[in-house]
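Hello again,

I reread your note about wanting to compare the complex against the isolated chains. To keep things tidy I'm splitting this into two emails, and this first one only covers the full assembly. Below are the input lines as submitted, including protein chains and any nucleic acid or small-molecule components. They are followed by the predicted structure of everything together. The single-chain runs will come separately.
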Amino acid sequence: MKEIPVTSLQRLPIYLNYLKSLDEQDNPGTYISSKIIAEALNMGEVLVRKDLAYTSAVGKTRVGYVRRELIDAIEDYLGCNSKKNAVIFGAGGLGRALLAYSGFKNYGINIVCAFETDPKRCGRLSGKPILEYKYAKPGIEQSGAKLAIIATPASSAQEVADLLVECGIKAILNFAPILLNVPDTCKVRNMDVAANLAILSSYLD
Amino acid sequence: MKEIPVTSLQRLPIYLNYLKSLDEQDNPGTYISSKIIAEALNMGEVLVRKDLAYTSAVGKTRVGYVRRELIDAIEDYLGCNSKKNAVIFGAGGLGRALLAYSGFKNYGINIVCAFETDPKRCGRLSGKPILEYKYAKPGIEQSGAKLAIIATPASSAQEVADLLVECGIKAILNFAPILLNVPDTCKVRNMDVAANLAILSSYLD
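Full-complex prediction:
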C-alpha cells in the first residue's frame, strides 16, 4: 500500500464530514464531483482528486463519484468501522488531554485506558479508566490493543517502549522528546511538539 | 536556508545534551568525532554528520569537531539564546499540558501565557498566566510574540487564526483538526494527533 501523506489523511475526515452533511439536506443527488467538493471546502480540485485517489473510490468523467460509495470508501480507508484499540501511557497533562479527546473515533480508534505510575492520578476520566502501571501487561493483553501512545516524561519513555514491544504493541505514537530504540517490527511516529514549534520559529528569521 | 527535516531537528537537542554532559566529566578533550557521538548515542555515523551539517559546525578530517564550537553551533541553530515568545490559545487539557511543558526552552522558545474564553479556566498554571480571550490582542502586542499554538476545539480555531493574523503572528502550530485558512505571510504546521495515530494504525493491517 502506498503510504498516504499526513496532510492528505488529515483532509479525509473533512471530506467525509462534508459528504455526510449533504445527507441532511433535501435531495442531495446520487453523484458528486471533485469540483463541487473543492468549491464547497475552498480547496483545489486537483488536490481533492489526488486525496480521494488514496481510497478505493473511482470517479467517472463528467459526473464524478457516487456520493454514497465515496462515503463508504473514505470510511473504509480511515478504518472507521474497524474499532482498533489503543492505550495511553502517562496520565499527566498531555495523557489526560489525549484520554479525553474525542477525535480518535473519526479514524475508528478506540482509546481503551491509560496507565500511570502515580497512584494519585489513577481513577477515571471521561468515562475511561486510568490504571496503575503494574497492570499494563495484563491490561494490554486483555484489550488486544496493538497501538499505544507514549505521553510520559522522556526519562521513562524507553522503559515503557520496551514493555510495549514485549506486550505485542506494533505501533507507537511517541510524545516524549527522545528517540525510542525498538525493533523493526514496531513502528514509531514522533510527535515532538517543541521541535515542531522550533521549525516554525526558524521561518521568523 | 535549506529546511531541516523534523527528524533531524529532533536529534539536535539529543546531541547537545550529550556534548554538554561531557563537561561534567574530567578532561573531556578539545575535539570530538562524529564516530564517538554516533557510538555513544547508538546512531549511524553518516546520520550524525548529516544532522550536524545543518548547523554551522565544521568537522576536520580525523579529529572531528571542536567540542565547544559544536555546542555553540547547535545552540545557535536551535536559537537557544534567541528567546522567542509564543502564546497558546485554549486552556483545556491540551493547552494546559503545553503551558506546563518545559521542553520549549531547549529551542529558545518562551511560552508567555495562554488565552481562554472560559473565565473559570483562567488564572495561573506553572507560574504562567491564563488570561481571558478578550485580552488576546493587547496581550500579543505587549509580548511581541510572533509564534502561537492553537489548542482550541475545531469549531473556534478559524476565528482564533483570524485574530492571530490580525495581531501579526507569523507562525501557528495548530492542534485543532481543521485546515486553517490564513494568508501566505503566516506559516501553519498541523499537529493532528488522531490523524497521526491513524497513519500508524494503517501499518497494522
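For quick reference: DSSP finds eight helices and nine strands in chain A.

B.
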